[in-house]
Design goal:
The structure holds two protein chains of two kinds.
Chain A lengths: L3 E4 L2 E4 L5 E7 L4 E9 L6 E7 L5 E2 L8 E7 L2 E6 L8 E9 L6 E2 L3 E5 L1
Parallel strand pairs in A: 2-11
Antiparallel strand pairs in A: 1-3, 3-8, 4-5, 4-9, 5-6, 7-8, 9-10, 9-11
Chain B lengths: L4 E3 L2 E5 L4 E6 L6 E7 L6 E6 L5 E4 L2 E5 L5 E6 L8 E8 L7 E3 L3 E6 L1
Parallel strand pairs in B: 2-11
Antiparallel strand pairs in B: 1-3, 3-8, 4-5, 4-9, 6-7, 7-8, 9-10, 9-11
The chains are: A mainly beta, B mainly beta.
């Protein structure tokens, strides 16, 4: 149990375009989802926390108008990178937490490359 | 800002050797987790420690949470090539609604 999926697993887009990444909890209801970014050879950095039905809370230094997060249901959160630039190229990982536990379950990640 | 410093950053050892990875902070955490991450994949939880001084064993892996809940260590006995990966500690501070602060990471390579 407690499986989190991400789609797509990798995506290449042109500079200036937008790309949407989905994060789904497959067998539990996720009241909270987290989005992380990981640059090569670095650790995970929390970008934002999203609670179902409410606006996401962004970490300091993360542009909320550039990284749009929607958590419309208890099993789906989306991250849209708007007007992507090459410096947005990174590995984006989501995690989900159910209301019954504080443990986070991580997705497999999405590799974004902006050309 | 809570920082978790891991040492060493990189470790290359031969199969059968023992190793210890350290995770240190000046902040107190209500719990601390250890993850292993393979290239191109999400992190996989190894263990969660919540009590100061707690020691947990998972086969050849031994995890310890410092008495003051500011630091932790991971000891691997008789390392195997399958242990190769990025090891990450992550702390959850009290009152942060399970937000995790990840450590700087330790990349382990175990060769035959």
């Amino acid at each position: 149990g407690a499986v989190v999926s991400q789609h797509p697993s990798w995506v290449i887009c042109k500079s200036g375009t937008s790309v949407k990444i989905e994060c789904r909890s497959l067998d539990f209801q996720a009241t909270t989802m987290f989005w992380y970014r990981q640059f090569p050879k670095q650790s995970l950095m929390l970008m934002a926390t999203s609670n179902e039905g409410s606006k996401a809370t962004y970490e300091q230094g993360v542009e909320k108008d550039k990284f749009l997060i929607n958590h419309a249901s208890l099993t789906l959160s989306t991250l849209t990178v708007t007007s992507a630039h090459p410096e947005d190229s990174s590995f984006y990982i989501c995690s989900a937490r159910s209301g019954n536990t504080y443990q986070q379950y991580f997705g497999p990640g999405t590799r974004l490359t902006v050309t | 800002t809570q920082l978790l410093e891991q040492s060493p950053q990189f470790l290359s050892i031969q199969e059968g050797e023992n190793l210890t990875v350290y995770c240190n902070s000046s902040s107190v955490f209500s719990s601390l987790q250890w993850y292993r991450q393979e290239p191109g994949e999400g992190p996989v939880l190894l263990v969660t420690v919540v009590t100061g001084g707690e020691v947990k064993k998972l086969k050849r892996l031994t995890f310890q949470f410092g008495d003051a809940r500011k630091d932790s260590s991971l000891h691997i006995t008789a390392a195997q090539p399958g242990d190769t990966g990025l090891y990450l500690c992550a702390g959850e501070a009290t009152g942060t609604a399970s937000k995790l602060t990840f450590g700087t990471g330790t990349r382990l390579q175990v060769t035959l």
